[in-house]
C-alpha cells in the first residue's frame, strides 16, 4: 500500500556503511577490532563513556587493549544530553595523549559525544561550539569504534550526532559521512540491566525514527521496508523486555529494531518529532529524549497522516491495526499510537513534565532558530509553519480528546 505514496521518479540515496556485529557475545569482537586498529597504526585511543555503564564490558575492552598494545585515555563524564563543554574536555584529553582513534562505550550520548570528539581531533583550530553552530564542514574524523549499550538511537550505524549548547538552550544535530563508526558492537547481553523506563524510552526512540523516516520528503522504499519491521519488532518484544529484563531474545530483537531504525533514518532522515523534541530537552536537559518524543509523536501523526496516509497505515499496522490509508483517519491513527504508548507505561504529556501554554512560543522559536533543525523541518511532509508547530506542542500538553 505504501507504494501509492512513493514516486518512482524521485531518485533516492540508499546508505549502509558501518560494519556492525550483532548478537549475544558480540563484545568478543572487540579483540579483532583492536587488532585491526593497532595494525593501522592507532596505538593510543580516546575512550568516551558515561560514569558507570561502561563497566559492563570494560574487562574485555581493557584486555583487548593490552593484547594488542593499545594505550588509552578515558573520558568518563558524559551525561544524558551531552554538552559541547564535555566534548571539548574529551578532545583536550585526546590531544594531550596524542590519541588517533576513539572508542565509545554507551548509548546515544557517549557515542554522539565520541563522534564529535573524533571530528575535532582531526580538525584543530575548531571547538565543539563551532562544530554545532555549523561554522565549518568537516571532511575527516579519527576512526571510531562504537560499543552500544542501549537499543534505541541507532547512532552506532549512522552519520548523525547530537550535542547541546547549554547557554543557548540549543540541541543541534550534525550529519557527516566522516563520523560513520568504522565498527559497531551490538550485544544484547550488555543491556539486560537497563532500567524499565530507559528500556521504554530508548525503544520508543526507535519507533519515532521510523515514523519520521518513512514519511519525510526523502523517504524511500528502503526506509519504508525497515520502518514497518521496526514497529513490529518493538510492539512484540518491548512488553517481553519489560516483564523480564534478562530476556535475551527480547533484547536482541529490540536491538536489531533499533539498528535497522538507525539505517532507516540515515536514509529517509527525520522531520517534525525530532525537530520539536530537541527544544524540549534543550530547555530541560534532564528530560529523557525518548520521553520527549513519546509526548509529542501522537500530535505529529495527527498532523502528517493526511499527507502520508498509506505509508503510516502500513508502518503503524502492528500497533494500530485496521487503518486503511484514508486521510480522514488521522485522529484515529494518533489515538491508537497514544494508546499503545500508554499500554507500555509511558503516560506523561507535556503538562506533567512542567511545560505549559506559556512555553509554547519559546519552544516554537527554538525549533526555528536552533542550528540544523531547519533542515529537519524542511523534510516534513506538511509545511512546518509556526501554526503547525504550535498545534503539535499545544495538542501534546494533554492526552488526545476521546
UniProtKB/TrEMBL annotation:
Lineage: superkingdom = Bacteria
| Residue stretches making up the Fe-containing alcohol dehydrogenase-like C-terminal domain | 203-396
Q: Which GO terms describe its molecular function?
A: alcohol dehydrogenase (NAD+) activity; metal ion binding
One Pfam family, please name it. Fe-ADH
Q: Which UniProt keywords apply?
A: Oxidoreductase
Q: Where is the Alcohol dehydrogenase iron-type/glycerol dehydrogenase GldA domain?
A: 19-188
Q: Which family does it belong to?
A: Belongs to the iron-containing alcohol dehydrogenase family.
Instruction: Write the protein's name.
Output: Iron-containing alcohol dehydrogenase
Species assigned in the record? Thermanaerovibrio acidaminovorans (strain ATCC 49978 / DSM 6589 / Su883) (Selenomonas acidaminovorans)
Amino acid at each position: 500500500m505504501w507504494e501509492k505514496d512513493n514516486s518512482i521518479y524521485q531518485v533516492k540515496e540508499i546508505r549502509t556503511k558501518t560494519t556492525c556485529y550483532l548478537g549475544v557475545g558480540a563484545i568478543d569482537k572487540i579483540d579483532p577490532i583492536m587488532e585491526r586498529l593497532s595494525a593501522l597504526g592507532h596505538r593510543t585511543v580516546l575512550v568516551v563513556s558515561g560514569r558507570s555503564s561502561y563497566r559492563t564490558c570494560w574487562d574485555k575492552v581493557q584486555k583487548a587493549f593490552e593484547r594488542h598494545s593499545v594505550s588509552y585515555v578515558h573520558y568518563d563524564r558524559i551525561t544524558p544530553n551531552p554538552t559541547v563543554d564535555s566534548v571539548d574536555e574529551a578532545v583536550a584529553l585526546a590531544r594531550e595523549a596524542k590519541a588517533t582513534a576513539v572508542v565509545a562505550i554507551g548509548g546515544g550520548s557517549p557515542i554522539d559525544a565520541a563522534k564529535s570528539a573524533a571530528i575535532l581531533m582531526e580538525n584543530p583550530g575548531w571547538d565543539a561550539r563551532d562544530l554545532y553552530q555549523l561554522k565549518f564542514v568537516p571532511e575527516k574524523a579519527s576512526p571510531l569504534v562504537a560499543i552500544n549499550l542501549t537499543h534505541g538511537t541507532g547512532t552506532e550505524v549512522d552519520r548523525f550526532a547530537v550535542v547541546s549548547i547549554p547557554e543557548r538552550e540549543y540541541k543541534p544535530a550534525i550529519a557527516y559521512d566522516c563520523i560513520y563508526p568504522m565498527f559497531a558492537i551490538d550485544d544484547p547481553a550488555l543491556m539486560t540491566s537497563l532500567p524499565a523506563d530507559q528500556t521504554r524510552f530508548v525503544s520508543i526512540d526507535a519507533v519515532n525514527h521510523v515514523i519520521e523516516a518513512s514519511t519525510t520528503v526523502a523517504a524511500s522504499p528502503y526506509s519504508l521496508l525497515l520502518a514497518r519491521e521496526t514497529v513490529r519488532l518493538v510492539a512484540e518484544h518491548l512488553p517481553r523486555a519489560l516483564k523480564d529484563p534478562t530476556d535475551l531474545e527480547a533484547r536482541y530483537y529490540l536491538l536489531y529494531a533499533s539498528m535497522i531504525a538507525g539505517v532507516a533514518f540515515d536514509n529517509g532522515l527525520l522531520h517534525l518529532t525530532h525537530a520539536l523534541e530537541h527544544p524540549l530537552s534543550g530547555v530541560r536537559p534532564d528530560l529523557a529524549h525518548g520521553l520527549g518524543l513519546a509526548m509529542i509523536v501522537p500530535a505529529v501523526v495527527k498532523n502528517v497522516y493526511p499527507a502520508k496516509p498509506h505509508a503510516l497505515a502500513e508502518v503503524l499496522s502492528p500497533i494500530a491495526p485496521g487503518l486503511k490509508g484514508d486521510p480522514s483517519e488521522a485522529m484515529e491513527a494518533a489515538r491508537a499510537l497514544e494508546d499503545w504508548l500508554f499500554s507500555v507505561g509511558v503516560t506523561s504529556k507535556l503538562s506533567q513534565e512542567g511545560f505549559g501554554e506559556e512555553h509554547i512560543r519559546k519552544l516554537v522559536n527554538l525549533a526555528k532558530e536552533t542550528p540544523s533543525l531547519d533542515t529537519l523541518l524542511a523534510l516534513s511532509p506538511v509545511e512546518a509553519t509556526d501554526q503547525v508547530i504550535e498545534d503539535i506542542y499545544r495538542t501534546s500538553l494533554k492526552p488526545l480528546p476521546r
